[in-house]
């Protein structure tokens, strides 16, 4: 695993290990809804609306939630692949939103992304070697062509590909192999942080396990921090240190992975976990299935108050839920926060019966 550690990595602040690597505060991303013969923005799609979290060096924070809740938009806004509407993003103490083009190029060296679709994210007209060589040239890694070729072979070896794959095109690989190419491209600049945007959702189950184990091995050996975006709760449980649950552009609960899975607090989190397939669904201690009624509200006109209130199953919800937007506040006893005015004194509503 040390083959790509060339010693030319950008200098890190000595206090970096004592503070979050990534800090996000009140992040917002609104997309204008343009209609009419004369195009005008008549409304806004509130894809991300007030998201805050920290990611520390070498850890994995997972974002989970239904499709359209803002997970991928959050990841792309952090890297400035799309521009945020508001809020603060800091990477290793630097203000990402205030960076100029040269500072952004340096950020790309330390923060990368693995895209969900491994085929769409690769240039079909370039070989694997050409794609990786382009990255190394842009970031001025490798003193000459021979050094870059050697580095490319090391990268392919790390992700489990062969040297002869260098001269092949993306269509000549399987889905799992293409995702490994995407991982090699992200690793080529020796990043400290990678946004993994549903990196295994398009892969077969057997291949998913190979890619997940590869990501964990790379983290153990290189100390990379991940923002892991996924739907599969079993995968999230396996890879995460902490988990944040998103709904309609908001984070509604965050906690260490074991705390969240054993003691979920927010009614939406409980519904998600109750829907996850279990090997023995009738086993004593399994959660009752919670069926959510209705559809997810439109992000163009979200409900007032709690964003989840229109589908909330909790029996004690009342008119206050329609008036108050609950803040993500800590719960007593651990690093656990929930955005629900009904869960302060009764964290699990009596429905958590996980085996000890």
What is this entry, summarized?
This protein is of the alpha/beta class and 356 residues long. It contains nine helices and twelve strands. α3 (128-138) packs across α4 (145-158) and α5 runs parallel beside α6.
Keywords:
alpha/beta, four-stranded antiparallel β-sheet, 27% helix, disordered C terminus, Rossmann fold, 356 residues, globular, eight-stranded mixed β-sheet, 2 domains
What spatial form do the alpha-carbon principal axes imply?
A: globular
Number of domains: 2
Proportion of helical residues: 25-40%
Oligomeric state of shown chains: single chain
Which residue ranges are poorly predicted, with pLDDT under 50 across at least 5 consecutive positions? 1-17, 345-356
Q: Kindly state the mean pLDDT as a whole number?
A: 85
How would you portray this structure in words?
- By secondary structure, this protein is α/β, with parallel strands linked by helices.
- It has two domains: 16-240, 3-Layer(aba) Sandwich (Rossmann fold), CATH 3.40.50.300; 265-338, no CATH class.
- Helix content is 27%, strand content 21%.
- It is built from nine helices and twelve strands.
- It has helices at 71-78, 101-110, 128-138, 145-158, 175-187, 205-222, 233-239, 257-262, 267-275; strands at residues 22-35, 40-55, 60-64, 86-91, 94-95, 111-114, 193-197, 225-229, 242-247, 250-256, 329-330, 337-338.
- The strands form two sheets. Strands 6-7-8-3-9-10-12-11 form an eight-stranded mixed β-sheet, sandwiched between helices.
- α3 packs across α4 (145-158) and α5 packs parallel to α6.
- It is globular and about 70 Å long.
- The two termini are 37 Å apart.
